[in-house]
Amino acid sequence: MNSRRQEWPERFWSDGFDRRTFLSRSEWETYLRRAPVRYTRSEKAHKMPPTRICGYCHRAGNKKNRLQLAHRISALNGVRYLALTPEFLDRQELLVWAHLKVCNRKIELAYPETLTYLKDHGIDRLPDFLPRVVQKDWRRLGP
Question: Which are the contacts of 26, defined by CB distance < 8 A and separation ≥ 6?
Answer without folding.
Answer: none
